[in-house]
């Protein structure tokens, strides 16, 4: 199987879907002539031309809203946000419009829009540029949110998102863009709402999403090598819809759960996951559910401190040992 | 060399005439004898030169520190735009304020923030102006009427309008300068701020630092602009003007008119100041594709605001070659010392991550109004 980067996987998903469906268009700041601020859309303008790959002004509320409107007429816009942090100036379009129109029209209208871009801290750019809004967005029924951690999932989830008839928000991660992995050439999708067991184990379940999956896998290796603990890592991949069954099946096997995410703790994704586990598998638990999230403060700029703020393998190991004690 | 400023016909501003000097940027300034400049002493003029030189040398030192791997994240340089911050801010009085975007180092040094704390902030050190919490895009110095340093394009426009409102509300005779780029004019928040400023007669001056590009997008590709970006002010009944940002005298003269309008009539103004950045959008931008080297060279060699000011003052007999050399040497020395200071400074402590979030948390024991858990684990 070809080995490609996370960035290339996302690009391949867009290319393939643009070839498959002429209604797919790409819009965003610097996506066309500049080939993308992070080079994710590199070459797409050349291949598909300016009618389908479009540079926008710095007007997120305007162009995202325009995409929502166009999607109501059957265009399938794939909108790039240079950072999901900039979605905040377009919040009304993203939440009120895209998220509510189907419901408010009694099912008459749907919005097959995809909004994608990086949503992560860890890059030393300060509080305004480091938001991880997946929990906040997934709090709104009507919206779907996915967070791929690997090149394979990035491609499969984005292809599924583009074919999906509802708004799907894809949260990428600039730190993962250069990560490589096996990605098939053949057409495939990763269905939205299916979690993936990234590592099989028997003593502890770690539930994670996005880059926290990679952090957890590193921690699992340390736990195995240094503490003789067998850890299972469940990658949510999709936040809403959420694959409750895969989480519960793993917890029923290991009887211990540690939840890891890069969000701040309050109302994070894992607050919901913890509720699901305790309400549906309470009797299976041999210990209270553990949790690792970012330290509860706006993102600090200083790099060494930001590395402490975000979950690290060391912090995950420490929390795992507590759950296992 | 393309001269983008002159490619489209520019409509006449309502209040003032189009700056003729834009067409002849290297000649002696037509604004030298303007009321705003007539009272400048020799020492004042030298000081303005010194301010620009300090900004230039500070940023050139930043490049080196960045290349040494000591500054990460984004670093947006102001090199080439110095006359905008120095010219506009030099006409302000004690009740006048400012707020800007992420290209904020020049304004910071001009209002008197010291190089040490600015450099330390870039390195994420505890001695930085925001204790290592803000970074390059987020400098603040409220004691100097400097309200940031804002990372979200256009986000500062309503804030600056609010500062102007507060000044008026408190009965202070002051104004707020709100800086933004040529790309920022397309943010909705900017237009909402324009309307509020005009509707409520607020003493605010919106300054569009038009350097021709928003990242890799030329102004022509980002903006519907019949004539100029500032002309949009007309739709809100605001005064506006175009300014040659390579001529310090002109920047001062036209800013002074807007400040007077704000002080005396509480009326807002939009100033579009033509300028140019020599480096990429940020240090992360390789700057290879969207403009040609000749264009950059042309600006550097023919329109550099510091060199033009130097020439102006040499002609006036205010500066001498020896003085120029010593000012630049001192500025370089100051920047190097700032880098040493930053190097020697400690990083913030882990405990500090959860400090400075809420006033209340940092002021326990004083009169506080809320209870309960506020920082979560
Ligand atoms: C809302 C928002 N969208 C996008 C960005 C990313 N971004 C930062 S600066 C910039 C270009 C701004 O150009 P301009 O306004 O001309 O200012 P300049 O950088 O030239 O000073 C962009 C797109 C951002 N910071 N905020
Ligand atoms: Mg610009």
Notes on the protein architecture:
- By secondary structure, chain A is of the alpha/beta class.
- Chain A folds into two domains: 180 residues, 3-Layer(aba) Sandwich (Rossmann fold); 129 residues, 3-Layer(aba) Sandwich (Rossmann fold).
- In chain A, 38% of the residues lie in helices and 17% in strands.
- Chain A has eleven helices and 14 strands.
- In chain A, helix 3 runs parallel beside helix 4.
- Chain A starts with a strand and ends with a helix.
- In chain A, 55% of the residues are buried.
- Chain B has a single domain, classed as Rossmann fold, CATH 3.40.50.970.
- Helices cover 40% and strands 10% of the residues of chain B.
- Chain B contains 13 helices and eight strands.
- In chain B, the strands form two sheets. Chain B has a six-stranded parallel beta sheet with strand order 2-1-3-4-8-7, sandwiched between helices. Chain B has a two-stranded antiparallel sheet with strand order 5-6.
- In chain B, helix 7 links the parallel strand 3 and strand 4.
- In chain B, helix 2 runs antiparallel to helix 11.
- Classes of the chains: A alpha/beta (325), B alpha/beta (377).
- At the A-B interface, helix 10 of A face loops of B.
- The complex binds thiamine diphosphate and magnesium ion.
The side-by-side strand order for the widest beta sheet of chain B comes to: 2-1-3-4-8-7
Number of helical segments of chain B? 13
Mean pLDDT of chain B: 93
Fourth CATH level, the homologous superfamily of chain B: Thiamin diphosphate (ThDP)-binding fold, Pyr/PP domains
- How helix-rich are the residues of chain B, as a percent range? 25-40%
The bound ligands are:
thiamine diphosphate, magnesium ion
Q: What is the end-to-end distance of chain B?
A: 58 Å
Can you write the helix and strand succession of chain B as a string? Answer: HHHEHHEHEHEEEHEHEHHHH
Order of helices and strands of chain A: EHEHEHEHEHEHEEEEHEEHEHEHH
Structural class of chain B: alpha/beta
Using the alpha-carbon principal axes, give the shape of chain B: globular
- The CATH architecture classification of chain B is 3-Layer(aba) Sandwich
The span between the termini of chain A is 41 Å
Structural class of chain A: alpha/beta
User: What spatial form of chain A do the alpha-carbon principal axes imply?
Assistant: globular
Low-confidence stretches of chain A: none
């Amino acid at each position: 199987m070809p080995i490609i980067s996370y960035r290339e996987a996302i690009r391949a998903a867009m290319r393939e879907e643009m070839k498959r469906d002429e209604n797919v268009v790409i819009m965003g700041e610097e996506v066309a002539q500049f080939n993308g601020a992070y080079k994710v859309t590199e070459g797409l303008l050349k291949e598909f031309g300016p009618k389908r790959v479009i540079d926008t002004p710095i007007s997120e509320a305007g162009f995202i809203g325009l995409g929502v409107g166009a999607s109501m007429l059957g265009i399938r816009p794939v909108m790039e946000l240079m950072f999901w942090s900039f979605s905040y100036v377009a919040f009304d379009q993203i939440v009120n419009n895209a998220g509510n129109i189907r419901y408010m029209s009694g099912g008459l209208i749907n919005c097959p829009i995809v909004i994608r871009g990086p949503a992560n801290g860890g890059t030393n750019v300060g509080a305004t540029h480091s938001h991880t809004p997946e929990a906040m967005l997934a709090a709104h029924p009507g919206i779907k949110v996915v967070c791929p951690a690997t090149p394979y999932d990035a491609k499969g989830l984005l292809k599924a998102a583009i074919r999906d008839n509802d708004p799907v928000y894809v949260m990428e991660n600039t730190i993962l863009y250069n990560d490589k992995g096996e990605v098939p050439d053949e057409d495939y999708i990763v269905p939205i709402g299916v979690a993936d067991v990234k590592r099989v184990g028997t003593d502890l379940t770690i539930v994670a999403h996005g880059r926290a999956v990679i952090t957890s896998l590193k921690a699992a290796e340390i736990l195995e090598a240094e503490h003789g603990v067998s850890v299972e890592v469940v990658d949510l991949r999709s936040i809403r819809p959420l694959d409750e069954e895969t989480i519960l099946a793993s917890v029923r096997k290991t009887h211990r759960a540690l939840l890891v995410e890069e969000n701040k703790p309050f109302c994070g994704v894992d607050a919901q996951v913890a509720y699901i586990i305790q309400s549906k598998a309470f009797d299976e638990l041999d210990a209270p559910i553990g949790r690792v999230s970012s330290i509860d403060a706006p993102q600090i700029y200083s790099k060494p401190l930001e590395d402490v703020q975000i979950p690290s393998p060391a912090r995950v190991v420490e929390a795992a040992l507590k759950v296992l004690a | 060399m393309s001269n983008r400023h002159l490619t489209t016909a520019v409509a006449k501003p309502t209040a003032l005439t189009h700056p003729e000097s834009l067409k002849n940027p290297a000649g002696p300034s037509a604004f030298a004898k303007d009321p705003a400049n007539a009272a400048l002493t020799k020492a004042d003029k030298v000081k303005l030169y010194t301010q620009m030189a300090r900004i230039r040398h500070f940023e050139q030192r930043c490049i080196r520190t960045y290349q040494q791997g000591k500054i990460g994240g984004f670093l947006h340089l102001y090199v080439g735009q110095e006359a905008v911050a120095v010219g506009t801010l030099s006409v302000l009085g004690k009740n006048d304020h400012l707020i800007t975007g992420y290209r904020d180092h020049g304004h910071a040094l001009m209002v008197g923030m010291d190089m040490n704390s600015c450099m330390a902030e870039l390195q994420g050190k505890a001695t930085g102006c925001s204790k290592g919490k803000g970074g390059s895009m987020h400098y603040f110095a409220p004691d100097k009427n400097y309200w940031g340093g804002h990372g979200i394009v256009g986000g500062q426009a309503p804030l600056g309008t609010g500062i102007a409102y507060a000044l008026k509300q408190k009965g202070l005779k002051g104004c707020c300068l709100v800086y933004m780029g040529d790309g920022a004019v397309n943010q909705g928040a900017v237009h909402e701020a324009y309307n509020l400023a005009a509707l409520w007669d607020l003493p605010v001056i919106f300054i569009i630092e038009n350097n021709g590009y928003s990242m890799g997008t030329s102004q022509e590709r980002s903006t519907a602009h019949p004539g100029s970006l500032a002309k949009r002010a007309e739709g809100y009944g605001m005064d506006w003007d175009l300014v040659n940002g390579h001529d310090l005298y002109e920047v001062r003269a036209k800013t002074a008119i807007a400040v007077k309008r704000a002080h005396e009539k509480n009326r807002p103004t939009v100033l579009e100041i033509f300028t140019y950045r020599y480096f990429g959008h940020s240090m992360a931008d390789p700057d290879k594709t969207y403009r040609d080297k000749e264009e950059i060279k042309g600006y550097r060699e023919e329109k550099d605001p510091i060199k033009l000011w130097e020439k102006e003052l040499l002609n006036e007999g205010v500066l001498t070659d020896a003085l120029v050399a010593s000012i630049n040497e001192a500025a370089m020395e100051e920047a190097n010392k700032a880098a040493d200071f930053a190097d020697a400074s400690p990083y913030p402590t882990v405990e500090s991550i959860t400090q400075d979030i809420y006033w209340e948390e940092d002021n326990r024991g004083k009169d506080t109004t809320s209870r309960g858990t506020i920082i979560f684990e």
